[in-house]
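User: Before I run my own analysis I want an independent prediction to cross-check against. Here's the chain; please return only the structure tokens and, at the end, one sentence I can use as a sanity check.
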Amino acid sequence: MKGEFSILKGKVEGVRSESVLYGKTITIIGDSYVAGHTLDQSLTWSAKLAAKYNMTYNNYGINGNALPVTTISGSAVLERYTEMADNADYVIVVGGKNDYNYNVPIADFKTGL
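Assistant: Structure tokens:
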């Protein structure tokens, strides 16, 4: 049936060119949930979403990264966002896990976000 999709073996099938997402640009920034941790970035959920809708995809994820504080893995997301392409139709920020691990106060996290 037109407009349906299925998930087979982790792959999303059934591109809908009439979707509002089709052909847009998506930029995502954050920690290992964005970078893919040990996976190739092409296997992340955001890469699959971009592929499904024929989107231009920009991934600015760094494993171990935190939102408002610099860590051993690099500059804070709050410092790195200026390096992002500025033509995105959609921007997704993913963070919180490493901030929790580094005991970042929730007020600092909220301010950073």
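Sanity check: The first helix runs from residue 32 to 35.
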